[in-house]
């Protein structure tokens, strides 16, 4: 793999020449990374010209110079969001901002002969500026080793201003940096361009909770009995719209318990638009002692985030009133 060139003549005693003989790895295969080595042979003669003036040079033999070095490959950059080359903002609502983390990977072979990767944001293209604002956190990735990934430093956001389908692109610039490997300065390598898409919906796509019925819960029971009243509730929204979730957060009296859920509280799917839930929710009143039991149960309501990238929207609570009379049995006397 070694290469050698040059010569010099009439080097005086105790003198040094550091310029005319050059060795290197000019014959090495640089199409592959790795350690390269070879040898160069220097032929030496004693020359009497200008000193002894004896005609004819004397062969002093040869000297072998060992030559070695390393060939490094450039870093290879890959930018993705959720494992794809597009940034999917999904479905979200006007007035909301959705953020996506980018994963930056140095896909070069991890064999100690690959340079490290730098990444930074390039040109942002908002193809639908009337629908909102495309932005980044201005983050970057520095000296990412071969085979390594970073999913924290660089994020892209879209703030929704109007309903519609969004489009555009985000350019990620890459550099191959030899600071900790080859020692070479950073150079630009091919960038990545990620397309963006998403659907912005109007706030009117939220679920709409109808009133839970019956309300109030009333009745009469005997001491020792329990009144159980099933409740019905509907999602009054017209499709396409989000699903409705419902659950109880508590009651005002220990004799009153409220149970059950509608949909998937904190997630999706919820009760579909136009659908009615009957019997999934219930209020129970325990007749532990004679008298009147009055109180409330609080029903929490959510729009399930189907059109908002899974982000739940809390709706107004409903208060279920309870008014139940508990009677003791008659006692016969003689």
Concise summary:
This protein has 334 residues and is an all-beta fold. The protein has strands spanning 3-5, 22-24, 34-46, 58-71, 77-80, 86-93, 97-101, 103-106, 116-126, 132-136, 140-144, 149-150, 155-160, 164-177, 187-201, 217-222, 226-234, 244-251, 256-259, 261-262, 276-286, 291-303, 313-327.
Q: Quick one: biggest sheet?
A: 5 strands, mixed
* Largest sheet: spatial strand order: 6-15-14-9-11
The figure for the number of domains is 3
Helix content: under 10%
Query: How many H/I helices?
Result: 0
| SS elements, strand count | 23
Apparent shape: rod-shaped
Q: Report the top-level CATH class of the largest domain.
A: Mainly Beta
Order of helices and strands: EEEEEEEEEEEEEEEEEEEEEEE
Strand share of the residues? over 45%
* Poorly predicted segments: none
Radius of gyration from CA coordinates: 40 Å
What structural class do the secondary elements suggest?
mainly beta
What integer is the average pLDDT?
Answer: 94
Q: Provide the CATH architecture of the largest domain.
A: Sandwich
CATH topology annotation of the largest domain: Immunoglobulin-like
> Alpha-carbon distance between the termini?
123 Å
């Amino acid at each position: 793999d070694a290469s050698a060139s040059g010569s010099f003549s009439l080097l005086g005693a105790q003198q040094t020449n550091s310029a005319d003989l050059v060795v290197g790895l000019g014959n090495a295969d640089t199409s592959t990374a790795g350690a390269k080595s070879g040898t160069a042979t220097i032929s030496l003669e004693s020359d009497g010209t200008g000193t002894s003036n004896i005609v004819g040079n004397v062969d002093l033999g040869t000297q072998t110079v060992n030559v070695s070095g390393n060939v490094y490959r450039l870093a290879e950059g890959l930018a993705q969001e959720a494992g794809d080359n597009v940034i999917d903002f999904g479905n979200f609502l006007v007035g909301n901002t959705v953020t996506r983390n980018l994963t930056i990977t140095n896909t070069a072979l991890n064999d100690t002969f690959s340079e490290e990767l730098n990444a930074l944001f390039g040109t942002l293209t908002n193809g639908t500026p009337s629908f909102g604002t495309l932005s980044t956190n201005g983050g970057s990735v520095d000296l990412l080793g071969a085979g390594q990934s970073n999913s924290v430093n660089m994020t892209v956001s879209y703030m929704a201003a109007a309903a519609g389908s969004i489009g555009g692109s985000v350019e990620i610039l890459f550099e191959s940096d030899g600071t900790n490997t080859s020692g070479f300065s950073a150079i630009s390598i091919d960038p990545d361009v990620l397309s963006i898409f998403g659907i912005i919906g109007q706030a009117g796509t939220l679920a709409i909770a109808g009133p839970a019925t019956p309300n109030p819960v009333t009745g009469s029971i005997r001491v020792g009995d329990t009144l159980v009243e099933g409740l019905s509730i509907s999602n009054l929204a017209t499709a396409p719209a989000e699903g409705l979730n419902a659950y109880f957060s508590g009651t005002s009296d220990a004799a009153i318990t409220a149970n059950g859920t509608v949909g998937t509280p904190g997630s999706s799917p919820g009760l579909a638009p136009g659908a009615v839930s009957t019997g999934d929710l219930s209020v129970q009143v325990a007749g532990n002692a004679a008298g009147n039991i009055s109180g409330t149960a609080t029903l929490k309501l959510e729009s399930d985030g189907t059109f908002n990238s899974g982000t739940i929207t809390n709706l107004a609570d409903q208060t279920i009133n309870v008014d139940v009379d508990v009677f003791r049995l008659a006692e016969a006397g003689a």
